[in-house]
Amino acid sequence: MRSLGCFWCPGKDYSERELGDPCPTCGRTYDSPLRNPPAVIAKYRVTAAVARGFYGATYRAEQTSLRRTVVLKVIPTATYQTHGKSWDDECYAHSEVAENNPFIADITDQFDANVEFGEGALECHVAVLANLPGPTLEQVLANPAVEGLTARMAAQIAADLFDIMGSLVARRRFHNDLHAENVIVRRLAPAEKRSADVFDPMILAVAIDLGSMSEESRSGGGERINDQHQVARHLARLADALRTLSRTRTDTDFRIGETLRGLAEHLTPAAGAQRLMSQDDARAALAGAMRTVDEPWHKPLTLRRIGDAQNAQVLESWHVPELWLDPEGRWFSRTTGRGPQVITGMRGCGKTMLLRALHFHARARKIVLDGHRDVVEQLRADGFVGLFASSQKLLNPRDAANPRTTIPSPFERLYIAYLRDAIQVLRHLRSLDDSALNGP
Questions:
Q1: Contact 74, 57 (CB under 8 A)
Q2: Mind listing the pLDDT tens digit for each residue in 164-183?
Q3: Which of 52, 101, 110, 236 has its CA 20 to 30 A from that of 244?
Q4: How is residue 22 annotated by DSSP?
């Protein structure tokens, strides 16, 4: 639920309502401008209703003279008279904050027109906004499976919400009506693809309907919800959407969902009650959650108690340098000699650790821990690339306990295991130096 004003009976009641609720004065529902949209507005042909804000409604329309799709924000002039607002000043402020700001929908024109709705005509203010292909955030949250929500997409929306707030604060402004229908999750064309350092380069969350924008936060005083708390709501709903998407949650879904919930909890207290994290801090938290999945070699080794142990067979190779002692590299120089070698020893003496210390991930981590800056150059000096596959895993598939199950040929499984490990090695190498690989 959110604050909605009646299109036909403007007032200053900011109570939260459902779109289908009737106005206590005229009986029309608050979504009547969406259910009964105008066919034309001036020289624009309306093609679809988009969303309702507190004051007005937005529509997609075609500018017939140029066959160009735009978004029209339509607000009855009586509403602005009731609230003592200046339409011209608002449009100018919108243009000012949208300039060179990808997180705010651009405004290209504004005018007044007599608009014929299905339930009568109204004199309205009309703003012409850039068309933003994609659903509203409300549509994504209400139908995450239909809209194709993923953990990466959720993380990107969250990061963009912080950037929306940050871009306005940098201009000494507050949106003051940042509900989920006032955010468009824009689908980008291939030519508009964002840089590689974002979570999902093919989407961009953009704020629309800046009718409540001002130089101070007018909401949060028991009437409307301020920007900070609106974003907290969106993050919590994104976390819930990820949780309910499927029965089987991936590690990425879990980590991003929990991070989003933690950020939402951080934003829930009053702004003056704590020091709020910046959008850079929030993005770093999201990146950390994603990196433990995308780049697990950054995840620290955790040994909580004195009796904790790690089995070398299941220990990730990038943790080996933290546990393996090799004074002056003597073990390394012996095991990297040319020709076949046989390593023998009693159980638990460190044979597996010796081998895993040669794995690419272990070597890369060791070089970093040793303080070398040019990690790739040091790896090149090794003269080899170590791959690792556990024979125990190759010979014991999940259903091996069933005596009627035929274990697949181990050599085919070994080949696939090495291919998978090689891909992980390439990902690790690219994280060290983006130019170290040829191609994407």
A1: yes
A2: 988 888 888 888 778 888 89
A3: 52
A4: B
Structure tokens at 36: 């009964």
* Cα 83 to Cα 56: distance, rounded to the nearest angstrom: 13
Give the residue from 162, 225, 161, 196 showing the smallest Cα distance to 15: 225
- Which of the four pLDDT bands, split at 50, 70 and 90, describes residue 439? low
Pairing state of beta strands 2-3 and 203-207?
unpaired
Enumerate the β-bridge partners of residue 125: 75, 112
Phi, psi (deg, nearest 5) at residue 196: -70, -10
Q: How confident is the model at residue 304 (pLDDT cuts 50, 70, 90)?
A: low
What residues have CB less than 8 Å from 291, skipping those under 6 apart? 298, 299
231: amino acid identity, one letter = V
Task: Give the three-state DSSP class for 109.
Answer: strand
Judge residue 64's burial from the number of C-beta atoms within 10 Å of its C-beta, 0-12 exposed, 13-18 middle, 19 or more buried.
exposed
Rounded to the nearest 5°, which phi and psi values hold at 62? -105, 125
| 83-131 pLDDT, tens digit each | 888 999 889 989 999 899 999 999 999 999 999 998 788 999 999 998 8
What 3-state DSSP class applies to 164? helix
Tokens at residue 156, please?
A: 């990107």
In the numeric block, the tokens 């989003």 are attached to: 260
Please, what is the angle between helix 227-244 and helix 151-169, to 10°? 180
* Nearest residue to 425 via CA among 379, 383, 370, 367: 379
Distance linking the first and last C-alpha atoms of the chain: 44
CB–CB of 48/59 below 8 Å?
yes
* Rounded CA separation 74/71 (Å): 10
What's the CA gap between 158 and 149, in Å, rounded? 12
**Cα–Cα distance, 304 to 318 (Å, whole number):** 19
Alpha carbons 261 and 50: distance in angstroms, whole number? 28
Q: How far is CA 352 from CA 258, 315, 318, 366, 390, in A?
A: 35, 10, 14, 17, 10
Query: How many degrees, rounded to 5, is the angle at CA 421 between CA 417 and CA 426?
Result: 150
